[in-house]
Amino acid sequence: DHHCPWINNCVGLSNQKLFILFLGLYTCASAIFTLILLAGSAFYWLWSQNNWSDAPPPGSASLICTGMVAVECFAAVLFVSDFLQEQVESIQMNSTLVETYQRTHGARSTFYNHFVAVFGTSW
Fold first, then answer.
1. What is the pLDDT along the chain (123 residues), one digit of tens a residue?
2. What is the widest separation between alpha-carbon atoms in the chain?
3. Roughly what angle, to the nearest 10 degrees, separates helices 60-93 and 16-49?
4. What does each C-alpha distance from 73 to 15, 38, 63, 111 come to in angstroms?
5. Closest CA to 48 of 69, 62, 36
6. Are the C-beta atoms of residues 56 and 44 closer than 8 Å to each other?
7. Where in or outside the cell (predicted)?
8. CB contact burial 29-42 (16+ within 10 A = b; e otherwise)
9. Distance from CA of residue 3 to its chain's centroid?
10. Between β-strands 2-4 and 9-11, what pairing exists: parallel, antiparallel or unpaired?
11. Which domain range does residue 115 map to?
């Protein structure tokens, strides 16, 4: 179907399952990391605001770095989830990337049948 520089390999029917699982894992990992980063920073900031806490408030450099990393992680989530959505659409339409550009497709069937063709019956 196409060459992917992320995995340094061509993606086709024989390895599309692994590519989709890779994209799904990367999307989930980036989203979870972003949430943990923001929740941890917010918790630390709230903790440092209490009178009984000895924790110093976070500095501006810490807040800027946290914000930049959170924005970068969120951008990665959007970027990779778009690739994931394209792969799911290619399964649904039974078409490769090249066939999509040529506005052609494979044989029409149900989404389940196309899904089983890519993922198999037990995955």
1. 778 887 888 888 888 898 899 899 988 988 898 889 888 888 888 877 777 667 777 788 888 888 898 888 889 889 989 989 988 988 898 888 788 888 887 888 899 999 999 998 876
2. 68
3. 150
4. 26, 11, 15, 31
5. 62
6. no
7. Membrane
8. ebbeebeeebeebe
9. 18
10. antiparallel
11. 2-119
Number of domains present in the structure of the chain: 1
DSSP string for 31-55: HHHHHHHHHHHHHHHHHHHSTT--P
Which residue in this structure is represented by tokens 């903790």? 47
Cα distances from 119 to residues 104, 105, 111, 123, in angstroms, run 22, 19, 12, 6
